[in-house]
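Much of our argument rests on the idea that a fold can be written as discrete symbols. Part of our work consisted of pairing the sequence of a single chain with a tokenised description of its backbone. We regard such an encoding as a compact summary of how the chain folds. The amino acid sequence and the backbone structure tokens for this protein are reproduced below.
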Amino acid sequence: MHPCMSLSQWASEKLYLDNDDLVSDFIQEIETAKISIDMEVFTFEDGVFARRLLEAFKKAIERGVQVRLVADGWGSPTFWETIGPELEKIGVGIRIHRSLPWRHHRHNLDEPRSRIAKFIVRLRRINRGFHRKITVIDKKSAWVTSLNVTDVHLKEVYGKNAWSDVGVRFTGPGIATFIYAFDKIFLRGQWVKFSSQPKSPLILLNNSFFRRRKTTFIQKRRLKRAQKRIWIQTPYFIPERTLLRALYRAARKNIDIKIIIPEKNDQPIVKFLTYALLNQLIHHKIQVYEYQPRFAHKKVLIVDDIYTLGSTNFNHRSFLHDLEVEVLLSHSNTKEQVELSFLDDLKECLEITPQWIKKKPIWYRMTARILFFFRFWC
């Protein structure tokens, strides 16, 4: 490690608030890769974005670059009917995490050969999603974003209705943690002996039972220790009970708590589940805002001077079920950009008030109460 590099600070971090700029620079770096490209993503869906990646991967492999991909089977249900076979044909190493139980395709080396046994294994894993969005290039840089490989993120395709996201390109010693986490998933079942996971104070991974509990504990501790503010932007706000209690305790200390959720949502059931919490949140003087223009898919948490982003949502799935990543920002200019972005989004929000809640029809309120019992799986 270079003597000037600190484990508590990224060597460099570049923030992207425009998805089209991010995808453009991302593809450009892939086109210059010399050694390896390791990509993790929840959704890999055929389209403009995917076709650009296919072409960039093809050229990289022709240069001798190793390209590997991990995607989630439930997040990418049409993968093998569309672009998957083309990626496999050009030489991309592919692993599908949590495959659809009825699909029979050679992709995971740790699954039994028997179709019946394979079906049972996949049923057991059905609730353990792979939600990380990380790409490591040449083992030197890492792209951590909230973007999947799908055109809904691109303004050139969806115009003003394109999703709002955030991403960061990092360099520094912490990259070793991402490399380890990728290999642990990709090489699962191949009898590879792994050393202990490299530690980085800048990265939170919940890729084991212990680390899932630790991640929840760290988040709860941050909320408890907040002195001035807790700002949350998330597409899915259905927090685990202990985190919700920590927010209520922080509110009693007059901490400035602002939560931005999207008015438009790709998961309609989440709006009902979140609605069931609104009365209590407002009763505790927690300010909740609905972002109006488009679906905001950002996952941002600001607690005092701690700024984090990644794939983690403020819901049960992220803390109890899915594999996630959360990264701390370490540069003051990047933090300032995230804060300004939050405040800019706030200007395009509608604040949720008791009057707004009362205007909802009775059927809506009753549906929200009923669906709230299923929050553990959402």
User: Anything to note?
Assistant: The two ends are 41 Å apart (CA to CA). The longest helix spans residues 209-225.
